[in-house]
Amino acid sequence: FSSQVATVTEYGAFIKIPGCRKQGLVHKTHMSSCRVDKPSEIVDVGDKVWVKLIRKEMKDDKLKLSLSMKVVNQGTGKDLDPNNVSLDQDERKKRMFRDYTSQKITLEAVLNTVCKKCGCKGHFAKECFVQPGGTKYSLIPEEEEEEVAAAGYERDKKTSVADDSSKKRKK
Q1: Which among 113, 115, 110 has a CA at the least distance from the CA of 130?
Q2: Which long-range contacts (CB under 8 A, 24 or more apart) does 156-161 make?
Q3: Cα(4)–Cα(75) distance, rounded to whole angstroms?
């Protein structure tokens, strides 16, 4: 239905419900399919908007109405989600979200392992796909590792040349 914005807050906008004195909230997550940081950038008080009722909730003897603007075409008022599929998906995402920030993922532990089956670096024996007598595969070293290895080889080469020249002098 088409309605008018009554007030705008930092968490959404309250919309006047036509035909009664009630207002419904369009949370900032339901204003647009894009991320909305400030609802005041999307709507102003008095703006005409198309909304859809997505939830009714009784809380403390008060009826709370949740509205959505993102499932309604703001030009024509056409319902873009008549079967509430995207709303159900959003709800599932909210329920399934878990905060994994405290669990750090360390790849180094796996990358520095040596397979007991084939002897190659970078995987475990249970993940090994080498057949007996087949080709052995291992991880390709990173560019930094190659540079460090090359620098170490050059250093070893210089010290061996220096050792050879000192041995020649002693003779």
Answers
A1: 115
A2: none
A3: 14
